[in-house]
Design goal:
The chain has 5 helices and 8 strands. The chain is α+β, with helices and mostly antiparallel strands and 177 residues long. An 8-stranded mixed β-sheet has the order 1-2-3-4-5-6-8-7, with helices on both faces. It comes from Deinococcus aluminii. This is N-acetyltransferase domain-containing protein.
Length: 177
C-alpha cells in the first residue's frame, strides 16, 4: 500500500478526498471536459460522487498512485491533482480545477507541490504530463512549473469518443524552479 500524503501548495492543501468533497465532484461532472479525461462520473449524484471518492482511496491500496483533492484550508475540493507511477522510473501527473476556481494559480501551485513530492521518491526520475494542444491554459501551467514540451503524440489518447493528439511534457530532477 502506498502511504497517505497531505501536501501544502501555497495557501492550498493537497489531501485525500473525503465525503465533504461530494458536491465538488458533482460540480465537476457538469464541466464539458473534466468527465471526458478523468473518472469523474457524469451524470453524478451523491452515490456516484462517493464511489468516485472510494476509487481515489483504492489507488493507494492497489499502489496505482496518489489522487489528491486540492482545497483551501478545510474547505471542499476545488480540483484534483494526481501522480501515477508507471514503469522504468516514470510517473504521469494530471490535474483538473473547477471552473469557478480557475485563473487563481491553483493548478500551478498544486502541480509544483505534487511534482516536488514525486521527484523526492527515490524510484522516480521522470514525470510526464499530457495536454491537448488547444488547452493553452493547461500547457502554460505546466511550463510555468518547469515542465518542458518534448513533442506532439498524434492520436495518442481517447478523449470521449475520439482519439486526440497530446503534447507530452516532462520534468526531471533538478528542473523545478
Amino acid at each position: 500500500m502506498l502511504p497517505t500524503v497531505t501536501l501544502q501548495a501555497g495557501p492550498f492543501t493537497l489531501r485525500p478526498f473525503s465525503v465533504r468533497d461530494s458536491a465538488s465532484i458533482c460540480e465537476a461532472s457538469h464541466d464539458p471536459l473534466i468527465p471526458l479525461i478523468t473518472t469523474v462520473p457524469s451524470p453524478c449524484d451523491e452515490a456516484a460522487a462517493l464511489a468516485f471518492i472510494e476509487r481515489q482511496h483504492e489507488r493507494l491500496r492497489t499502489e496505482t498512485g496518489w489522487s489528491l483533492a486540492i482545497a483551501e484550508g478545510n474547505g471542499p475540493a476545488l480540483g484534483q491533482v494526481g501522480l501515477w507511477p508507471q514503469t522504468q522510473g516514470r510517473a504521469s501527473v494530471g490535474y483538473w480545477v473547477l471552473a469557478h476556481a480557475r485563473g487563481q494559480g491553483l493548478a500551478a501551485q498544486a502541480l509544483r507541490a505534487i511534482s516536488h513530492f514525486g521527484l523526492s521518491l527515490p524510484e522516480l526520475s521522470r514525470l510526464e504530463l499530457y495536454v491537448e494542444p488547444w488547452n493553452e491554459a493547461s500547457w502554460r501551467t505546466a511550463e510555468k512549473v518547469g515542465y518542458r514540451r518534448e513533442g506532439l503524440l498524434r492520436q495518442y489518447q481517447n478523449v470521449g469518443p475520439e482519439r486526440k493528439d497530446m503534447f507530452i511534457y516532462s520534468l526531471l530532477p533538478g528542473e523545478l524552479p
